[in-house]
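Hi U.,

Before I forget, here's the chain from the pilot set. I'm dumping it here mostly so it's searchable later in email.
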Amino acid sequence: MGAFRFKQFEVVQEHSAMKVNTDAVLLGAWMSVGGAAGDGNDTAGIPLRALDIGTGTGVIALMAGQRLAQASLAAQIDAVEIDEGACKDAAANFAAAPWEGITFHLHGKSLQEFAGEMVADSAAKFNLIVSNPPYFISSLKNDSAAKTMARHTDTLSQRELLFHSIALLAEGGIFAVILPVTEGEELLRKVEFMAQAAVNKEAGDIQNTQNTGDAGQLALFPSRICYVHTTERKPAKRMMLEFVKCHPTARPALQREQLVMMSGGIYTQEYTSLVGDFYLWG
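Structure:
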């Protein structure tokens, strides 16, 4: 399959099992890139740090790079990918990226290996972590081993994805993900369970310590949820979710959204506005 051309970059996908797809483009366009630094230091000469988990061809990382460059933000974007073929494509795509001030670092290893190397370095925290992860928890496997690894949770479960993302995120950092609705709601339940544990710990710490400024623990709290419909008459096909790592007392208000991609056989204005900076037809 030939390269996929966007307005500002091109994606080679010769060796990748999973090609450029709508899910990746939706998430890359929707995620909160500009405010991902969280602590407000992104304008203080310190590059924003982003991590793309399961980067594949690198399309989401490249979309993040374009958006950050448009916002005049310097950034280091790390990308983790376990598949050797996808790494070949991602490396070529990152090398051809056209933006100054945006650097890409590709890691050909699992998230578990990457996190094990990074978590000991307290300075190496990420302001944004994004993933279009494997999502089939229980279903028939594809004949292609590469496609099976890319689509199924055998090599990266939801629990592992959350555990390592929390460990790697800086305070105030954002975790963004796209999933089918069933799997998205399951992830949301896991996050809310973990968040409630943090709330309970916060209450106990405040009761048992005089230094309440250090009370509680950081956790992920949902900040945005978007249900994606292919048409207005069909149920949502995907959920895009965003979480913020913070103390329970700083948990954000939850913003719920809906995106309808097509109406009357044509793309909606909301959809074309979202992806218009990337697709050639936008």
